[in-house]
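Recap from last week: sequence in, structure out.
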Amino acid sequence: MTSSIEGALYGVSQFFLTPVLVAIAALFLYAFFALGAFVVQALQRRAGQAAGFELNQVVRADPRIGIGELEVIAAQRLECVRIATRVAPLLGLVATMIPMGPALGALGDGDLAAVSGGLGVAFSAVILALIASAMTYAVAQVRRRWYAADLLRIERERAGGAATEPFMHERPHALPAEAVR
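Predicted structure tokens:
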């Protein structure tokens, strides 16, 4: 009874290797797409182009939109990179563990070529997954800061506070000369 359950679990787990590897490859490609879009947006923001400030465009399109709605829009725009950041390492772990079963079986049979192949797949998959996660994590973190700064500026402008310099948060902040000494 136990061996049939173990065999079924083993078979099901082996079935998922290809879909998991395809998902890791897709996340890896998506990470480069997200990084490219991020670089373009960073260049637009640095140049002060309106296209780099997504939340400002939303406010221009509908000036009555609330801060809460803008926060939801910002969260929606971060959702894909945040999911990729969290899912990629999980899939990397799954892709590491699935080939380990056959590799350990091959080790017991003395088939070192099969062990090598299984370990190669396992380590390659986890490396690509971690790289994808690292790239999307960086994109998500910086974009979250951008959106927070944009929301703060929009909120201040609506409150009638002193008009802030529109792109102030994009410039590196220099220390005053007396702070350096």
